[in-house]
Amino acid sequence: MEKADNETDLTSGQLVQKLSQGNIRRYIRLNYLNNYLVKLVDIRDIEIRPAVDISFLSSEHQDIQ
Fold first, then answer.
1. What is the pLDDT of residues 12-65, one digit of tens each?
2. Which helix (H) or strand (E) holds 40?
3. How many Cβ atoms sit within 10 Å of the Cβ of residue 38?
4. Contact, 4 vs 30, CB < 8 A?
5. Could you give phi then psi for residue 39, rounded to 5 degrees?
6. C-alpha dihedral, 23 to 56 to 30 to 45, nearest 10°
7. Which of 22, 24, 46 is nearest to 33 (CA)?
8. What is the rounded CA–CA span in Å between residue 63 and residue 65?
């Protein structure tokens, strides 16, 4: 697989250094979303911060399908 010129290789340590603690916590919190909402975040229909807020709702309340 060829890389684009602007891509760089980052080790996990370098990646963590580029992320703030708050961002890391937000990304971890996304694990509490149901699969449908995760897909919406992945395709950027829902932004990260609102998704984090939604992640605090029970799975029952997250079921919006």
1. 666 667 778 888 899 999 999 999 999 999 999 999 999 999 999 999 999 875
2. helix 35-42
3. 15
4. no
5. -65, -40
6. -100
7. 46
8. 6
